[in-house]
Specification:
The protein is an alpha+beta fold and 410 residues long. The chain is built from 11 helices and 14 strands. The protein folds into 3 domains: 163 residues, THUMP superfamily (THUMP fold, 2-Layer Sandwich), CATH 3.30.2300; 125 residues, Alpha-Beta Plaits (2-Layer Sandwich); 110 residues, Alpha-Beta Plaits. It is elongated. The protein starts with a helix and ends with a strand.
């Protein structure tokens, strides 16, 4: 089929379907796959001349879009006004569109009648508004990772604008220098977070957390709505996190300021936490990173310092037996069995160093594979961890104090 025959075929179907009432946007769109040009409006003009203007041109009476393209200028003005009013920092954007289902249905039905696969009306609306805003805002559209999304609802007579701010992600390491502070917020066990006398109406089980020490100053600086803390594992409440710190990603949601001084944030957190929490090595990162650091990879390791009390006396030379600890089979510990699947995991002890304090008190420095339960490695957890410090020494052993001193990759 030659070009002129195809143009005539489509024009006759469009004329019958629309009764001749179609704007240049909607007309040009139905030929965008076969007519090169600078846009659908120019294609529409070209077609009218070629078809001797047999199609009525009236934007307000277009039977496909119902004149929605006439609202683009108003949408651009409202979007710019809202961005200025909210005082938002952004370097890229994307447009989202909401229109009547009837308009979408008519547009898709006509394409089906024509037997063509061209962009739908929403894509054209997004593109046309995006071009206007790129010029007026001097900011580029970003289809992959926009900082803000400008959603336009064309349903009312005057378009309404809703702004979405994509989160920013900050990666760093934290040190927890005191015991009895959890990593993240826990809801009160009695009121489940609603607030009661038991929790002093805070809704929290613990008054302070690592997450809040870091997120509250960050939210203030970025003018965000809320935050989500993502840690590379977590230590127990009564365990300190020392050494080079534990990796984390802080997700700051709906930030109105996207560029904050990370050195200043680091200083504010470290000075305001009363020596309880420190952060270091802050840098901006990407969305996928929050999942990457949570993976307990075989390539990760942690180094612990454990104070151990023994039920019976041992001799200094007994500590040499601990060098036999290698592959440990650990059934899900009793203390976490209520929230983790009951299964047996294999983890490796890379290295263990021991210090003899007295016949019933030793200090262990253990380098183990990520995911190794240290308290259970020591006590055996009623035989659920095998072998263990307890089984190798032949005496009951209990970890009375534990510190994480290094988290890293092999």
């Amino acid at each position: 089929m030659n070009m002129d025959t195809e143009l005539k075929r489509r024009a006759e179907i469009i004329l019958e379907y629309t009764n001749g009432k179609i704007c240049n946007h909607c007309l040009g769109r139905k030929f965008s796959d076969i007519i090169p040009g600078q846009g659908n409006v120019m294609r529409g003009n070209y077609l009218r001349e070629k078809l001797n203007d047999n199609l009525n041109f009236d934007d307000n009476e277009c039977s496909i879009c119902k004149g929605v393209f006439n609202k683009i200028d108003a949408a651009s003005v409202r979007a710019k006004e809202k961005l200025e009013y909210m005082d938002v920092e952004y370097h890229s954007f994307l447009i989202g569109t909401k229109i009547d289902k009837e308009i979408l249905s008519c547009d898709e039905e006509l394409s089906e009648k024509l037997g063509i696969d061209v962009e739908n009306i929403k894509k054209e609306l997004n593109r046309e508004l995006g071009l206007i805003l790129e010029d007026s805002l001097n900011v580029e559209v970003d289809f992959e990772n926009p900082e803000i999304i400008i959603n336009v609802n064309y349903k009312p007579e005057t378009p309404t604008i809703y702004l979405m701010f994509n989160p920013i992600f900050i990666e760093g390491r934290y040190r927890k220098l005191v015991r009895n502070i959890p990593q993240t917020k826990w809801p009160c066990g009695k009121c489940k977070g609603k607030g009661c006398e038991e929790c002093d109406f805070t809704g929290k089980q613990y008054p302070e957390t690592v997450e809040e020490f870091i997120s509250e100053p960050a939210l203030k600086m970025c003018r965000g709505r809320d935050a989500k803390f993502h840690g590379a594992g977590r230590e127990d409440i009564n365990v300190r996190m020392l050494g080079n710190g534990r990796p984390f990603v802080l997700e700051l949601r709906s930030p109105k300021t996207r560029t904050i001084n990370l050195k200043e944030l680091e200083s504010v957190v470290n000075s305001s936490s009363d020596g309880k929490v420190e952060i270091l090595d802050l840098k901006y990162t990407h969305r996928k990173r929050k999942g990457e650091i949570k993976v307990s990879s075989p390539d990760t390791y942690k180094v612990y310092r454990a104070e151990v009390e023994l039920d019976e006396d041992i001799m200094l030379e007994d500590l040499d037996k601990l060098n036999s600890l290698d592959i440990i089979k650990q059934r899900t510990p009793n203390r976490v069995s209520h929230r983790r699947a009951d299964k047996i995991r294999e983890r490796k002890v890379f290295n263990i160093k021991s210090e003899f304090i007295n016949p019933r008190h030793i200090v262990l420095t253990i380098k183990g594979q990520g995911g190794l339960y240290i308290k259970e490695l020591i006590s055996s957890d009623e035989g659920r961890s095998n072998p263990s410090v307890s089984s190798v020494l032949g005496v009951a052993a209990l970890c009375t104090q534990l510190d994480v001193i290094e988290v890293g990759n092999n």
